[in-house]
Write a structure and sequence with these properties.
Layout: E1 3-15, E2 26-42, E3 49-53, E4 58-61, H1 70-81, E5 90-96, H2 106-121, H3 128-143, H4 149-156, E6 160-162, E7 169-170, E8 177-183, H5 190-203, H6 205-228, H7 232-249, H8 254-265, E9 270-274, E10 281-286, H9 291-300, E11 305-311
Parallel strand pairs: 3-5
Antiparallel strand pairs: 1-2, 2-5, 2-6, 3-4, 6-7, 8-10, 8-11, 9-10
(3R)-3-hydroxy-3-methyl-5-(phosphonooxy)pentanoic acid binds next to helix 4 and helix 5.
Amino acid sequence: MKDYRATAPGKVILFGEHAVVYHQPAIAVPVTTVQAKVDLQATGENSGLRIIAPDLGRDYRLAEAEADDALALIIRLTLARFQQVESLQATLIVTSTIPLGRGLGSGAAISTAVVRALAQFYGQQITPAAISDLVYEVEKLYHGTPSGIDNTVIAYEQPVYFIRQQPIERLPVGRAFILVVGDTGQVSPTHKAVGHVRRQWQADPQRFESLFAEAGRIAATARTIIEQGGPGATLGALMNDNQAVLAAMGVSSPELDRLIEAARQAGAWGAKLSGAGWGGNMIALVEPETAPAVSDALLKAGATGCIITEVAPS
Ligand code: PMV
């Protein structure tokens, strides 16, 4: 029987998380050193679709899935889009090297890989925009009010300058740069952190709107520097400024602060949390020669994992 395989990368948000929910610009890039993979094998049996997710210890049938099951939802949405009414006789195996729930886009990457595998299976062409729209529906399960940045950067697999509900803008990268991504090992509760920011904004709209606007200005400045391949030290300083804004929003944590400080001490140009915060991952912008020292410093400071990744010119 034929095998259909698809992958999708992880992502990091470089600038503008949280403020992006309030229509400020943000920048995100794909991280291809980690991947979600989907393997779809047609079976001759008449027993519907079996879903196996070994990392999650799950093995079940589509027909038995709960209403809020993310895998079942993306499969059903995709089948509806392809107007497939016949039940699918196959086994779908999902694996991923993207740490779960740590702001690296594991959910959006798995959904994207599922859509791509099903598109191959049915011999359908599907655009990144259409994939992104389908994946956005599933993101709502996790986030409540997602900005759409995760599904966009992962479905397009390109750096993006993202403004909620605006047409996607690809972000050309003038010169390669290196990021070290350090994992606190703690799950980042996106839904809770986003809710916390919302409540604080409601309590003190003036203060929070100025924090969102400041994050937006930082992202807009960073965009120009990235496009022009400008100095790493300038971009790093903007990351530090963005971290200060995120800390003022109350979404950093002692573990994130410790890793961010360790990266700066080890010679990073700048460092900040990435994603919703309260755990998850932080990122540091480094010179190629400094990357190993920063990675060592992060592991010594308690990071449970470190990824060194290059954002290539485009
Ligand atoms: O999924 P995460 O942890 O990368 O968080 C997404 C970023 C937020 O701006 C906090 C939320 C959103 O919907 O954009």
